[in-house]
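Design job #97: recover the sequence.
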């Protein structure tokens, strides 16, 4: 069965959503829900929150699609701006969260064959370490790292999503990267050696849960 046709332009989809086209909303959701979910997950560190925020964002899109201004920025940046507001509301309401839910196994890791388990473990540890370091950043610095370095938005798109000047994005990102590097160095120094021999001669591997990529 062939996939349903979807217009290539996000702007076209939003214009159709503003006119009440349910199929356009479904198409935009299929195309962009992953971006919104990842942003909310990186910002909150909680799968349940990311899922709720993603649903909230597209409910807002259904209501406010007509407020999008084509040419000002991109739809991806506009959606991240909505997601940012939703996440901040949750932060203000619920307070500070802990790290990413440990019970989540990573959708893309499920069913995969890992020919190099030690290499996969090391990669998983680095990803988990990065997530902890990002979540440790103050929110205004976390936002720019997630938008620019993880979501790969341009400075202009990030500025539009955050409602600030491009210069502010640049300065915050510079500061955030400095803080992130220091945090990663501290976490790395405290990390047990994955291949340190045990008394039995077998490598001692720290018990790490996989994080979502």
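Job complete. Output follows.
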């Amino acid at each position: 069965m062939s996939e349903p046709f979807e217009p290539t332009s996000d702007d076209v989809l939003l214009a159709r959503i503003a006119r009440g086209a349910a199929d356009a909303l479904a198409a935009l959701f299929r195309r962009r829900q992953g971006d919104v979910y990842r942003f909310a997950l990186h910002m909150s560190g909680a799968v349940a929150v990311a899922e709720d925020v993603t649903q909230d964002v597209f409910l807002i899109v259904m209501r406010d699609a007509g407020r999008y201004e084509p040419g000002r920025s991109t739809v991806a940046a506009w959606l991240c701006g909505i997601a940012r507001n939703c996440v901040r509301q949750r932060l203000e309401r619920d307070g500070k969260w802990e790290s990413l839910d440990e019970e989540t196994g990573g959708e893309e890791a499920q069913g995969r064959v890992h020919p190099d388990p030690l290499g996969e473990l090391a990669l998983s540890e680095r990803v988990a370490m990065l997530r902890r370091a990002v979540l440790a950043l103050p929110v205004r610095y976390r936002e720019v790292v997630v938008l620019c370095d993880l979501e790969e938005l341009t400075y202009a798109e990030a500025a539009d999503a955050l409602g600030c000047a491009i210069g502010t994005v640049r300065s915050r990102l510079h500061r955030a990267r400095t803080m992130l590097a220091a945090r990663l160095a501290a976490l790395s120094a405290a990390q047990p050696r994955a291949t340190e021999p045990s008394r039995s001669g077998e490598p001692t591997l720290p018990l790490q849960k996989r994080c979502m990529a």
